[in-house]
DNA sequence: CTGTTAGCGCTTTCAT
DNA sequence: ATGAAAGCGCTAACAG
């Protein structure tokens, strides 16, 4: 019995009563650690030690192993590695419905940072339904070392992604409110529109409209709140809030409403850049001039805004950095460099004035 | 000895000489198949059979197992499953540098289809360097059942992603040219600009410029070629080709050149939509009217084009469908429903006329 | 129908 | 310094 075992270890591919199983395995995937060991004339343990630099190995054998591995094009089976309880090397990313440039920028920040730190991305996009989020999270289970979750609608406790993996929330409500033990990275939604509105006020605008984002989106709520706070004390007819959304068509529709208002606003703070572009389109369509008759300011700072016509004033969010911070923090936690943080890290936004808005006081 | 083994199977958590190892395991991840078996009072094999519906099991035990699994919140360890040689459930997606709406649309198509078919996405974006692509591919090795690769610059044989996994190329050069054994899904780059240019010609334009995409991008080359073919026979000064790119700034810069041309083109076929928006911006900036003085047609059909000002005429690519077809085909191959195809599947594009272009013949 | 067992490929003690 | 062996959690023969 012990003789047979010995045979198994040192000559795994030798003829056996049943050649079938062996063959099946080699059909599936190529080179295993045993093939390398065999070729180098050492034990699989030594191969492992060399490849992981996990213990000192005789110089000659080391070279032998490295050569054999290279010759064979050996790549360790990640499934086997993670089965042993080691890292999977994956970071799961749970996103809402992705559309527009915001997400491609975010993805860029996430992926380039993940790459830099030696991780790969597992991505799942979901729509508003809770089950979709949970299904996405479940699919990640055991395949990732940590999670980045961006859920503008559902709060972490509603999502109930109670995975053991460390999780960083991005622009997700709930976490900001308090120390539920969640950690989130956000940007200043409220302050953004507050500043934009304040600027317009100082620039001499009296009647300013806000086109708000989608219902139940926490960030849309915050942006509306920022607008309201800046307009605090002004009569209601001077600060109308119009239903809108995050897409151009919704901004376009809102512009119709705004163009017909009495008194007509001389400025609009839009929910985001696409919405703002739609508003501009709708305003122009209604025969108004932007910024001649109406100033428009967006939110996000998407690249298109620099070249739309007129170029778009906006509250710029450093999206790329948002992604980078999320991954970097997550990896720090995964690797034990720091304890899982809680609370919120806020990334500041900045008002960028371009051609779609103008001052009424300094002509 | 056999008694001990029996014990191990039926009471894995019982006290053992060394309690350490057990504890370590439970630290890492929660519930295993043995916990479920223990709770249901059956063997792990039965649990597996119930959960995978892989063999008939006594009704009562079935319920017992299902209850136990649900109570414990059991999720099979994917690493263990794939180690057995079963599917990983992953689809690897290798993309170039992502920016703009094209990629968020593509991602949408890929992810929603993958979800529908029970797969998740592993994403890696790369820039132009070959090593980055290969590193991305290597990271996917063993973690995915198949690959979707979109490489507008490097051909499949240059990429040398010689993985055993079935691979579908999207909008990637090389495969189109011949049966190298690769399969690719593309759209009609050449035909797209050809049609757009033909339309402009028929609409009475004589001098038409093309702002081409990035150097060495195969799709940019094809689009230029489509333009040239449509303009075949026309004198060179009537069909200038200007350096450009896929971003607005490059279109903007190209517009400056075009505005200064003698004779000045009355129409521009741009490399893509963002480029076209930049061209429009630059043209307006130079005091020209669009489409009054110059008509502009883009390529891709990004959502913004519907609401830019003027709304953008474009060659619309069904990006979402592109992603869907890629994943669907790949999964068909993975699941053995069809043999790995070769050659190209072309997805047709369509000319969509909006306000940025006008006819000179029917006023 | 159901339990036992042999691995999947790898890392990590444990003995040399 | 290095080989043997014990599993990680799971599925798929192989016996009952």
Number of strands of chain A: 12
The CATH superfamily of the largest domain in chain A bears the name Response regulator
Mean model confidence by pLDDT of chain A: 88
Low-confidence stretches of chain A: 1-28
Counting structural domains of chain A, the number is 3
**Secondary-structure element string of chain A:** HHHHHHEHEHEHEEHEHEHEHEEHEE
Oligomer: homodimer
- Tell me the major beta sheet of chain A: 6 strands, parallel
Global morphology of chain A: elongated
Task: Give the C-alpha Rg of chain A.
Answer: 28 Å
Q: What structural class do the secondary elements of chain A suggest? A: alpha/beta
The assigned CATH architecture of the largest domain in chain A is 3-Layer(aba) Sandwich
CA-CA gap between termini of chain A: 96 Å
Question: Largest contact between protein chains?
Answer: A-B, 62 and 61 residues
Binned, the helix content of chain A reads 40-55%
Explain this structure:
The structure is a homodimer of 363-residue chains. Chain A has 363 residues and is of the alpha/beta class. Chain A has three domains: 33-72, no CATH class; 90-186 and 319-347, Response regulator (Rossmann fold); 189-317, Response regulator (Rossmann fold, 3-Layer(aba) Sandwich), CATH 3.40.50.2300. The first copy, chain A, is 42% helix and 15% strand. Chain A is built from 14 helices and twelve strands. In chain A, the strands form two sheets. A six-stranded parallel beta sheet of chain A has the order 2-1-3-4-5-11, sandwiched between helices. Chain A has a six-stranded mixed beta sheet with strand order 7-6-8-9-10-12, sandwiched between helices. In chain A, helix 7 packs parallel to helix 14 (319-334) and helix 12 packs across helix 13 (273-285). Chain A is elongated and about 85 Å long. The model of chain A is unreliable at 1-28 (pLDDT under 50). At the A-B interface, helix 2, helix 6, helix 7, strand 2 and helix 8 of A face helix 2, helix 6, helix 7, strand 2 and helix 8 of B. Chain A binds a DNA duplex (16 and 16 nucleotides) through residues 5-6, 9-10, 21, 25, 28-29, 32-34, 42-46, 48-49, 52, 54-58, 61, 76-77, 79-86.
């Amino acid at each position: 019995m012990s003789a047979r075992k010995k045979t198994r270890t040192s000559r795994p591919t030798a003829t056996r009563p049943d050649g079938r199983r062996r063959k099946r395995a080699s059909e599936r995937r190529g080179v295993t650690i045993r093939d390398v060991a065999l070729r180098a004339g050492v034990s699989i343990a030594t191969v492992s030690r060399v490849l992981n630099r996990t213990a000192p190995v005789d110089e000659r054998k080391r070279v032998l192993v490295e050569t054999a591995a290279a010759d064979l094009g050996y790549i360790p089976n990640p499934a086997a590695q993670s089965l042993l309880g080691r890292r999977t090397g994956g970071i799961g990313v749970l996103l809402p419905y992705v559309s527009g440039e915001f997400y491609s920028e975010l993805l860029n920040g996430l992926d380039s940072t993940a790459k830099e730190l030696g991780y790969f991305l597992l991505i799942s996009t979901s729509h508003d339904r809770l089950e979709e989020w949970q299904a996405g999270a479940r699919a990640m289970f055991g395949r990732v070392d940590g999670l980045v979750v961006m859920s503008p609608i559902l709060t972490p406790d509603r999502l109930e992604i109670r995975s053991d993996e460390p999780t960083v929330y991005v622009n997700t409500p709930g976490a900001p409110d308090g120390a539920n033990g969640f950690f989130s990275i956000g940007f200043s939604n409220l302050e953004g529109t507050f500043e934009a509105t304040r600027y317009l006020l100082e620039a001499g605008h009296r009647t300013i409209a806000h086109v708000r984002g989608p219902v139940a989106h926490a960030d849309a709520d915050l942006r509306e709140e920022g607008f309201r706070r800046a307009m605090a004390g002004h009569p209601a007819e001077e600060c109308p809030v119009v239903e809108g959304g995050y897409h151009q068509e919704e901004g376009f529709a809102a512009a119709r409403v705004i163009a017909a208002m009495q008194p007509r606003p001389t400025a609009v703070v839009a929910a985001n850049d696409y919405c703002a572009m739609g508003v501009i389109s709708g305003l122009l369509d209604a025969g108004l001039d932007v910024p001649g008759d109406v100033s428009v300011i967006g939110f996000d700072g998407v690249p298109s805004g620099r070249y739309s016509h007129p170029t778009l004033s906006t509250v710029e969010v450093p999206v790329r950095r948002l992604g980078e911070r999320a991954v970097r923090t997550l990896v720090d936690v995964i690797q034990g460099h720091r304890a899982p943080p809680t609370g919120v890290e806020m990334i500041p936004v900045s008002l960028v004035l371009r051609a779609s808005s103008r001052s009424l006081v300094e002509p």
